[in-house]
Write a structure and sequence with these properties.
The protein has about 100 residues and is α+β, with helices and mostly antiparallel strands. The protein starts with a strand and ends with a strand.
């Protein structure tokens, strides 16, 4: 089993309020979870209307499959017109077994 976490820092392009930001973040997080089978949560910048940091967790039976999932998630976020991808970091968790 292979596990990784992806930290995605975003700028919300057209948000001018927390309500507008929440709409974009909620849409993005539910879309990522549904489309790619990952767990997603907003993990930082909750009080800023134009920034968001998402944590994405994925599990796969092979490392190559896990890398494909994370790359696809990143590309999907990068291709969205309503957000700007500022920074991406990946943390792989070791399986002791």
């Amino acid at each position: 089993m292979f596990v990784a976490a992806l930290r995605i820092e975003l700028r919300i392009r057209e948000a001018h309020s927390l309500k507008e930001k929440r709409h974009v973040v909620k849409s993005l997080t539910s879309q990522l979870a549904r489309r790619f089978g990952v767990a997603v949560a907003e993990v930082d910048h909750q009080d800023l209307w134009n920034r968001a940091t998402l944590g994405v967790a994925a599990v796969a039976p092979q490392a190559s499959q896990l890398d494909r999932i994370l790359h696809t998630v990143e590309r999907h976020v990068r291709d969205r017109s309503d957000v700007e991808l500022l920074h991406v970091a990946v943390s792989h968790l070791e399986d002791p077994g």
